[in-house]
Amino acid sequence: MELRHLRHFVAVAETQHFGRAAARLGMAQPPLSQSIMRLEEQLGIKLLERTPRGVSLTPAGAALLAEAKPLIAQAELAERRVRQAADELASLSVAFVPMCALRIMPLAIQGLRKQWPGVDVRLIERGSALTVASVKNGSIDLGVVVTSSADVSGLESVVIERLRVVAAVPAKWPVATQPSIRIADLARYPLIMFPQQMSQPLFAAFETARREAGLSPRVTQQARHPYTMLNLVSHELGIGLMLDSARYLPVEGVAFVDIEDVPASGETEVSLVWADRPHKPYHRSMLDIMRDIASPTAG
Question: What residues make up the domain containing 78?
Fold first, then answer.
């Protein structure tokens, strides 16, 4: 039995359909059918029953499926370890914009370590434009950037998250128990905001709501770093406006409340970028892991 025949058989057995299995394997259906026929001929046993809707496993096929899956997994692990042994300085560099991928990045690194335990992942904080330039010149393997802040043309990219602005409120204030709040209502509280040049769409939305409500501005503090803002909020000096990724920063005394009427222009789209060049297998694994983690929330 050849390993490729077992891979083909597992795909057909799991999808119960030759067409879907061929699409999953990235191959045409006729060669896949021939591969299964050769496997059955080698074993002298019928593994699949053809049905009007696809295929079903024979008892022998079910037994082979149970044995084939761990064999394939072991072979793939052996391949990864051999490739890793050939590259003693295996490393992966990922540049990212602060406050982006706070949920995705730790989970992705944990997932990569399970597949490639010897790979050294280097995380580098930097702005979107510099990250894109570094990915293009090859000094960085992968980049996490704010899509609107950099020219990603010439690179492969996929959106991994869309971040909204939320209110970071002192946990002891009554507003912390609300499921949401409007911008005009926020204007009644002392506010802590990032400098205007760092959050122009939010400033514009806030000013419009404030004027419509006839309220005076109460921006009592400005903070350039998220932890500075969260520290001020935890000491009940005001309500901070920040990206909802801040929920993944563990700070006592702070609760997060959704803002109902943040405009679409206030949403921050975050993309994973990489160059279309040959990559090490673990680079490709990291790409796949990050996309899989992001898929439920990036849409």
Answer: 3-85
